[in-house]
Amino acid sequence: MNYFSRVAIAVDQLVATVFFGTLPDETISAMARRRRWKRTEAFINWIFNDDLHCARAYIAELSRSQISPDYKE
């Protein structure tokens, strides 16, 4: 993952935490899926041109697959 992508995800997580009260590591995409915000999820999926974007983000949070290898056991 490149620098720009990491910064974009960090900003996404900050916005989700500050404005929506999510966990600090959760993205807006994962939050929309978890909270079952269908319209928000559909809009985010449309932006990314991927019908499963939010579902994949949610699954990544559940499986903790987005964590740096340095923190995995």
What does this structure look like?
This protein has four helices and no strands. With 73 residues, the protein is an all-alpha fold. The chain has one domain (3-71). α2 crosses α4. The longest helix is centred in the N-terminal third of the chain and has 18 residues, at 3-20.
Largest sheet: none
* Percentage of residues assigned to helices: 55-70%
Overall 3D geometry? globular
Helix-strand sequence? HHHH
The low-confidence parts are none
What does the radius of gyration come to? Answer: 12 Å
How far is it from the N-terminal to the C-terminal residue, by CA?
Answer: 21 Å
The helix count comes to 4
Number of strands: 0
Task: Tell me the number of structural domains.
Answer: 1
Note the quaternary state here. Answer: single chain
- Mean pLDDT equals 91
Q: Which class do the helix and strand fractions yield?
A: mainly alpha
What is the beta-strand fraction? under 5%
Architecture blueprint of SSEs:
Layout: H1 3-20, H2 28-34, H3 38-47, H4 53-63
Nutshell version of this structure?
The protein has 73 residues and is mainly alpha-helical.
What attributes does this structure have?
about 70 residues; mainly alpha; 4 helices
